[in-house]
Amino acid sequence: MVIRLKKNKEKAVLNFHPWIFSGAIESVGKGITSGDTVAVHSFDGKFLAFGHFDSGSQIRVRLFSFDPNQDGNEKEYWFSKWKSILQQKKDLLPKDTTGFRLFHSEGDGVPGIIVDVYERTAVLQLKTAGALRLQEYLVSFLDEIGFEVILEKREKADSKKTEEVIFYKGNASETIFKENGIQFIADSTKGQKTGFFLDQRENRSLLGKYSKDKVILNTFAYSGAFSVYAMLNGAKIVHSLDISKQALDLCERNLVLNGLSNCIEEQTHKSLVLDCFDYLKQMESNFYDIIILDPPAFTKNISTVMQASRGYKEINMRAISKVKDGGLVFTFSCSQHISFDLFKKIIFGAAKDVKKKVRILHHLTQSPDHGYSVYHPEGEYLKGLVIQVDGEI
User: What is the average pLDDT value for the chain, to the nearest integer?
Assistant: First the structure.
């Protein structure tokens, strides 16, 4: 099964970029359907790569191999590749950590496949036609290496219910796992994404180093992982803010799980079920030493980047203007279409408009198990900065 590119459209493939857009394709071989493995050839017939075809996407082919000799037994190929990735991920993990991303789509050369691991539970998200085609192999592989619970969260485009949960093995909806020795609950059926945000592991550890005796606001807190790190590292007061009571209930369960129930009873930790934008606008100035801004993606489409940029600027203006002098703001964007360069320009604009002295202390990104290919810069979706606000200009 062969896809032939238009003349002079092979440059991106020769640079090992894993995406081929519809406009670059000259012809599609007879009988090829979405999810099929195809060989990509240049206009003059030279082999370039293997990939998965998807007739319903602008990204018409997602490449997974540039080796012309790999076209053998499909199951053996994928099992061998997945085993190699598993070993690489184990080598990346910090001590006493049992929650990690096993397969990270293009970052691991497995386009469309996301698998997050929580102890002995594996949670799948299959984002493309090619990934869905490999579902049976993938479940078999995960079963073979010993997972006790295997489930998939799948989007439902034709229903008001946005996701359905498919159990392939076991039926436990929650799992307790460890991150740097700290215990957390992953709610894989009702929770966001696969149940937890594993990509912030190193950034949470960094917050812990700054937390002692500090008053901290954790906005868009979800299940409170940043809050748990802060309290365990001696924070004076932590406020976890989220519009979802269900999320903050999970936050408090995570605190109790780590022996921090006294923080809830004594109200050194407080859950605030409020809109984050409203709270940032109305909150008291010079109360918080550290403010964490970790919102959901404000845009999933390049056409709404400007609107999203205004949203990021607004929340950062509020935080920069109201954090204590000398205080820190941990600020993030997980919007793929907001580049790191644009994100820094947004922070520059926010600081300028509120006339505050701001220094960048750290550049932050996703955890190493969410690594991205040097040939695919689009894989760097999580951008973060730690900034220090030193008072008025």
Answer: 95
Q: Is 106 helix (H, G, I), strand (E, B) or coil?
A: helix
- What is the distance between the alpha carbons of residues 198 and 122, in angstroms, rounded to a whole number? 13
Strand-pair category, 237-242 with 269-273 = parallel
Give the amino acid at 372: Y
DSSP 8-state code for residue 350: H
Strands 290-293 and 215-219: parallel
Collect all residues with Cβ–Cβ distance below 8 Å to 157 and sequence separation of at least 6. none
Rounded to the nearest angstrom, the gap between the alpha carbon of residue 196 and the centroid of all alpha carbons in its chain is 10
Quick one: tokens of 309?
């940029």
Structural contact between residues 207 and 235, judged by C-beta atoms closer than 8 angstroms: no
Sorting pLDDT into bands at 50, 70 and 90, what band is 305?
confident
What residues have CB less than 8 Å from 72, skipping those under 6 apart? none
Q: What is residue 182's predicted lDDT score, i.e. its pLDDT?
A: 98
The proportion of the chain whose per-residue pLDDT surpasses 70, expressed as a percent, equals 98
pLDDT tens-digit readout, 218-243: 999 999 999 999 999 999 999 999 99
For residues 311 and 349, is the Cβ–Cβ distance under 8 A?
A: no
Cα(259)–Cα(140) distance, rounded to whole angstroms?
38
Q: What is the pLDDT of residue 183?
A: 98
Q: Is the dihedral of CA 165, 170, 171, 175 positive or negative?
A: negative
Helix, strand or coil, per DSSP, at residue 225: helix
Among 156, 157, 155, 125, smallest CA distance to 138 is for 125
Quick: pLDDT tens for 47-68.
Answer: 999 999 999 999 999 999 999 9
Q: CA 113, CA 137: separation in Å to the nearest integer?
A: 12
H helices present in the chain, as ranges:
11-14, 74-92, 129-133, 135-144, 201-210, 225-232, 245-257, 261-265, 276-282, 305-322, 340-354
pLDDT band at 376 (very low <50, low <70, confident <90, very high): very high
Q: Which two tokens stand for residue 231?
A: 């309290």
